[in-house]
Amino acid sequence: MKKNPFLNPLVKRARQVRTRLFLGRKTYPVIISQAKLHSAGLFFEVSNPVEEWRVKELDNELEFLKTLLDDLKEEDILFDIGACVGLYAIHAAVRCKQVFAFEPDPGFQQRIQRNCTLNSVNNIRILPWAVSDRFGRTNLFTGGVAGRSPSLRDFGQGASLSVETRSLDEEIHQCRLPRPTIIKMDIEGAEFFALRGMSNLFSSSCPPRSLFVEIHPSFLRHFDASVKDVLGLIDSAGYQGVYHVSRDEQEHYIFKRA
C-alpha cells in the first residue's frame, strides 16, 4: 500500500498508542474530564481513540491554548475558525462573553453541541459553513470525528461532502455576525482564503486585537498559496508576530495589532 504523505501526526500518534492503551478498555462513548486549564474540569464526550487522545492531550497544543485563554477578557468575542470538537471554544466560553465556532463538518458540529450541553455552556454559537473569501459551495474532505481534521482539499481523509462557504467581511457587513476581538484559526491550509475574506474587518476602526493562527506549510501549496503569502496578508493588515512555534507539520503563530 502506498504511504500517504499527508497522514496527520495526530492520527499516527493515536495509532501508536491505541494498541498500548486502548485495547480491551471501556466501551465508547465515554465522558472525559479535562482539568489542565480549568480547575473544576471541563467535560468532553469521545467516541474513539483518536478523539480521546485529542481531548486528553489537548491536541498537543497546551501552551498555545493557554496563551489564548490568558489573553481573553470577560467582554471578548472569540471567532474559533476550525472549531473541531470544541476544545478551544469550550475553554474560552467559560472566560469570555461569546464564542462563534465555525465548523462545517456535521460530525464535529454535533460533538461541539454535545460538549456545550455537558458543560452547561450557552454562549457558543455554531456556524456550519467554511470561512473563505466568497459566498459559494465547495467540497469538504473528512474522515469524521475518528479521523484527521477536515480540509477543503483532499489529503486522504476518505470522504467528501458539499459545504457552504462565506466570508467574514460579508457576514459582518450584513450584520449577521458581530466584530470579533480575537480570532483563532486552524483550517488545514485554507487560511489564506479565510484571511483574504476579512480584509475589511482588518482595516475597520475595530479590528481584532489578537490573531492565533495555525499555518500548514505543506497544505498551502494545494491552495496556490505559501507561508509567505499568509504572513504578508497579516503584516499588511497591521499585525506583528509575537509568538512562533513549530509543531510537527504545523506552525503556531500569535499576532498582535501593531
Question: Main traits of this protein?
Answer:
three-stranded mixed sheet, alpha/beta, disordered N terminus, seven-stranded mixed sheet, Rossmann fold, globular, 26% strand
What does this structure look like?
This protein is of the alpha/beta class. It is built from ten helices and twelve strands. Helix 1 packs across helix 2. The chain is globular. It starts with 8 loop residues before the first helix and ends with a strand.
Biggest beta sheet summary: 7 strands, mixed
User: What is the number of strand segments?
Assistant: 12
- What is the N-to-C order of secondary-structure elements (H for helix, E for strand)? HEEHHEHEHEEEEHEHHEHHEE
Percent of residues in helices comes to 25-40%
As for the number of domains, it is: 1
Q: Roughly how many Å apart are the termini?
A: 49 Å
Per the CATH scheme, the topology name is Rossmann fold
| CATH architecture verdict | 3-Layer(aba) Sandwich
Q: Could you say which overall geometry the principal axes of the C-alpha atoms support? A: globular
Oligomeric state of the chains? single chain
What is the CATH homology-level superfamily?
A: Vaccinia Virus protein VP39
**Mind telling me the CATH class?**
Alpha Beta
Largest beta sheet: strand ordering: 5-4-3-9-10-12-11
Radius of gyration: 17 Å
Question: Helix count?
Answer: 10
Unreliable segments of 5+ consecutive residues? 1-6, 18-24
Please specify the SSE layout and strand pairing:
Blueprint: H1 9-22, E1 30-34, E2 42-46, H2 49-56, H3 62-71, E3 77-81, H4 87-93, E4 98-102, H5 106-118, E5 124-127, E6 130-131, E7 136-141, E8 160-166, H6 168-173, E9 182-185, H7 191-196, H8 199-203, E10 210-215, H9 217-220, H10 227-236, E11 239-247, E12 250-257
Parallel strand pairs: 3-4, 3-9, 4-5, 6-8, 9-10
Antiparallel strand pairs: 1-2, 7-8, 10-12, 11-12
Helix pairs in contact: 1-2
